[in-house]
Design a protein that fits this description.
Layout (H helix, E strand, L loop, with lengths): L8 H21 L5 E8 L5 E8 L12 H11 L5 E6 L1
Parallel strand pairs: 2-3
Antiparallel strand pairs: 1-2
Helix pairs in contact: 1-2
Length: 90
């Protein structure tokens, strides 16, 4: 009996493209600019998106990190393959 494993690379590339598009939309919704939201990696098997975030409000104490719960909800709604988010904060 032969067992074949499907290469997750094409699936990963398609999901990562969707995540990057959703991050562009999220960036425009943040109340301050510039904000850097970058996808570092995505695990197809785990559904974990690793994001690098940076930015904040020059006139207040807000940071991109304050918006993580909303960002996670936005990504999970737009890209159902995303189950969790892990942040790398600069």
């Amino acid at each position: 009996m032969a067992v074949f494993f499907r290469d997750p690379a094409p699936q990963r590339a398609a999901i990562e493209a969707c995540i990057r598009h959703a991050l562009e939309d999220a960036r425009s919704m943040l109340p301050f600019q510039p904000a850097r939201l970058e996808l570092v990696s995505f695990g197809v098997e785990t559904g974990e998106a690793v994001l690098e975030v940076e930015g904040g409000c020059a006139d207040c104490d807000l940071s991109v990190v304050n918006f993580v719960p909303g960002l996670e909800a936005h990504l999970r709604l737009r890209v159902p393959a995303v189950r969790t988010i892990r942040l790398l904060v600069d």
